[in-house]
Amino acid sequence: MAGRWLRHGRWQQVSLLSGRSSLRLFGAGKGEGSRHCSGSASLQKTEADPGVTEEEIVVPRKKTWDKLAVLQTLASTVNRDPTAAHYMFQDDPYLIPRNSYEYRLFSLSKESGKNAARYIVNEFPRFFEKDIAEPHIPCLMPENLAPQIEEVSEAALKERIQLRRVKASVDMFDQLLQSGTPLSLETSNRLLDLLCFYGDREPAREDQSEQKEELEESEEAAPDQRKRRGRSWKTSDFIGPKWRENNNAERIFNLMPERNAHSYCTMIRGMVKHGACVRAHDMYTDLLNDRHTADVYTFSALILAVPEVKENYIERWELVEDLLKHMVQQKVQPNLLTFNAVLKTLRKCGGMGKGISLKILREMKALNIEPSLATFEHLLGIFYKSGSMEIIYEVMDEIEGKTFVAQDPDDANFFVSAMRICHSLKDVELAYRLHKVLETGDNWKLIGDAQQQSLYCARFFTLVCMMEQLDVILKWYKELVPSLFYPNAQVMWDLLQALDTANHLEMVPQFWKDIKQLGLSNRPELLEEVLALMAREIHSQETQMSFANCAADIKSIFETRERNQVPLGWTASALGNIAILFSRVGRIQEACNMLELFKRTSRVPSDKVMNEVLTCAKQSNTPHQAVELVKLAAAFSLPTTAKLARRVIEEFELSEEQKKTLEDADPQSSDSSDSDSD
Amino acid sequence: MEKSCLRYIAETIKNKWFIRPAFRQFCVIYTFSLPILSSKTQKCFSTSTGFYNKEDESATSTDSSGEKASENQEKATPGNAKKNLLNIISEMKVELSSKKTFQILKTLKTKEQTKDQPESMESASSMFQKATADSKAKRSKPLNPELVEAVSAVASSLPFDRKQTVSDLLAQLRKHEEATDAQKKGETTNIRSQRIADMKIGKRRLTRGVSRPSSQISFDDDDGKVTCFKLVSGVSFFSYLESSPSLWDLELANQIAAVNQKPPRNGFEEMIQWTKEGKLWEFPINNEAGIEDDVEFHEHIFLDKYLEDFPKQGPIRHFMELVTCGLSKNPYLSVKQKAEHIEWFRDYFQEKEELLKEIDDHEKETDISLEKKSLSK
């Protein structure tokens, strides 16, 4: 019997248990006919009999686990692999990015693939009705994006607001208005929320917007970082559609029979969000006239709008101060975002920001509001502008060892700005401290998007290249590339300089490979630098061999570029350096080909190049090449042609014919030599 | 007339040998009709036979002897009777074994002296058949005929309009069955709407889940609310803010959460993300996942606590125990639905409470008379 029980499912087993317990109770009953009685009947009988029913079945409580506990523990055991690309690319080895371009392309492709799938699922929900998952997985099912209620009613309006259909909501509102249906204040306010938040434009759908944003971002993220930051400083982070005058939000606001504080607040926030800052402040005056009070977010928005309203630094601060006083009057408790808004505004108040910002910090402390990273970022920004960057040491003392969570959308900017200041101060120790803070706890999450992360790493690594020994530099290089960032041309340039300083130029070919892989081989300045460094001094034979291979590689890049019709013009120095590198390892034919290229691209080789090649020709004992060289020099009408010709005549065993050609090639030189001898 | 009728019913109810088979059958059918996994049916039998060891002989004879009994009845009882009584008797013919029918009819005769019963009885039985036929026609999916029979047996034990009782009980059972079926198979229309509802909830939950890690958001909100509450209490917009977060609040939370959101760095973090999105079985693996959120299994099984409002003994109690027995084996209904199911019966029987009290009185009488009878035998 027991075996049979075991085979049955959980449900059955327990119900059986319950059955058994009741059976036992039967047994405890008086006996006569109790087996035929219903359970309760016998139960009542036993209840009359004290002591028997004392025994109570205590069902043990189920232990509850956090659903993430196991996974979080496991995840904490995995460290970053510095040699691998980011985890998101590890599905397919073919799609592992090797440079920042591919990184962006592949991550965007992955994201847009997801969005495309989601779009299809939402667009054609009828093909995705089948729900095979158990338990049900809501996020894999099509979302309901079409309004269900057709009739004209407040419920329909609410539904459209819920679905964030801006235009449909406005239409529904107008229809309701025409039919004379009164709307509740709450629904009107919800509608205003929607209109103000999206600035009376249809919001991009969730499955489309993200991609767009990222694309925009990647476009913006083009090398000119300064421009981008400058813009975000100038305006109050205003991106997106502008607030139009008399748009639907204003129209509906004016049509509303009664308005409460929320109606005003949402209008103000919408106006600030969409750049109508002056109007927002006017609206605030209306709010005051209507004897309402604003909420804390509205005040934050108003404070952010101040720089757009007033031109003068002093006037700006006065307005902010006024607003803060209003908050006190209206008994609105400020929060972190309010203070961050004040500091953000102070960044645009010139030199006077320094003193006030410290006062603001004290105020925060008095109110027991813990500053977030954005607070520090604004602080650094204010002091950076006025040239006193030393405040970062105090900030660093403050944040060291702490873990932060995002509390303000601006929090993600902190690490990049702080690293910029480290870079400006050329303080590598400070940079290490900052990096340590980043690695504390979950702070790495606050480094911002991929763009900010790579900017941070680039600044950090550049600083390290500047200040550290080569072995430390290489350690950091291995640590950061390619798992955290893909160096840009500037970073590689700095690295080459560091190699030069450390006198380890033999490592250049190794980094040339990295440069190629990073997709930087189309940067002429980098190619020039690599060639120049390699050609500058004479190294051991082995190194020279690898240099020559490297040079051949670079030459092929120039040539393929030519074929692809991407202009990557030869320069005299590039041609010369390659020729030198070839001639140093005795690849005379290739060196001569380079000289030919000089002719073809009408560049003029330097004396050094000619001499090096000539030496090479002598070493390989090819008088023919030597004569060709002199001919070439004559064709370029180089001033050193005569010297070269003389060297050839002296050093090579030439046939008569060759001698003659030499003299033919440069009759002047013989003249001049004659005159010299005279 | 009605009083006498009730007395009769009380007597029949008291006679457990008569009632029990019907109940027993009902129990078996009831549990069978519910979508229990096939492997469990055996167990149903074993439990039910555990309750009723001795009555098997009588139970087996009921069906075959039903028609005979009705014939006998028609012959035996002439004259007119009121509908209630007729219903009961017509029902009786279905369930009683012939021998017992005779016995009961005898007692009926002696006690009530009803002379004009048979005619009406005939008409009543036909009426009953019609009624069941009607109700069958109405149903899209006919209930198990055995189940119908059992229900009618239960109904007969109650002193009300029998047809009404039968149809009420059947309706409830059918509803129950439909619900079970729907939840088992996933009825398209229901699920569709349900799915939409789920999705909305899921989405909101997701955004909240995302925003939660940044504890400051909640701190901010609290902060705002507390001060609002303290200082601006009574201002109308506050209550509005309280009711639900506005679009602004939601989007601000999303924005801040987005700062914290990073693509997973390893497989485990990806699994964490999937868990948050609800795509993955939660660890530790729990085979009750998705059945019901915050209900433990024992609440599905031990339903006795819902029976407190029912009489402590008697046929209703018995019936309800069988209902709970069946429900406890049904994995497709939620605890709430089960409780509602039982509640419906409670309300139903409470409506009829007065009548039931009268029955109680009669029970006592008949008890005595039966004892006397058995003694005399």
Automatic annotation (TrEMBL), chain A:
The entry's keywords: Mitochondrion, Repeat, Ribonucleoprotein, Ribosomal protein, RNA-binding, rRNA-binding, Transit peptide, Translation regulation
Organism of origin: Gopherus evgoodei
InterPro entries listed in its UniProt record: PPR_rpt, PROP1-like_PPR_dom, PTCD3, Rib_mS39_PPR, TPR-like_helical_dom_sf
Subcellular location: Mitochondrion
PROSITE patterns with a match to the protein in the record: PPR
Annotated family: Belongs to the mitochondrion-specific ribosomal protein mS39 family.
All copies of domain PROP1-like PPR, residue ranges: 283-399
UniProt biased composition (Acidic residues): 213-222
Full protein name: Small ribosomal subunit protein mS39
Annotated Basic and acidic residues bias: 203-212
Superkingdom, natural source: Eukaryota
Gene label: PTCD3
Positions of the UniProt region annotated as Disordered: 30-49, 203-233, 656-678
Molecular function, one GO term: ribosomal small subunit binding
Record has Ribonucleoprotein as a keyword: yes
UniProtKB/TrEMBL annotation, chain B:
Transmembrane segments: none
Extent of Polar residues compositional bias: 120-129
Keywords for the protein's UniProt record, in alphabetical order: Coiled coil, Mitochondrion, Ribonucleoprotein, Ribosomal protein, Transit peptide
GO MF entries: protein domain specific binding; structural constituent of ribosome
GO cellular component, one term: mitochondrial small ribosomal subunit
Region annotated Disordered, chain positions: 55-81, 110-141
Name of the protein in its database record: Small ribosomal subunit protein mS31
Coiled-coil residue windows: 345-372
InterPro entries: MRP-S31
Family statement: Belongs to the mitochondrion-specific ribosomal protein mS31 family.
Compositionally biased spans, kind Basic and acidic residues: 65-74
Keyword Cytoplasm: no
Location(s), subcellular: Mitochondrion
PANTHER family linked to this entry: MITOCHONDRIAL RIBOSOMAL PROTEIN S31 (PTHR13231), SMALL RIBOSOMAL SUBUNIT PROTEIN MS31 (PTHR13231:SF3)
Source organism: Gopherus evgoodei (Goodes thornscrub tortoise)
Domain of life of the source: Eukaryota
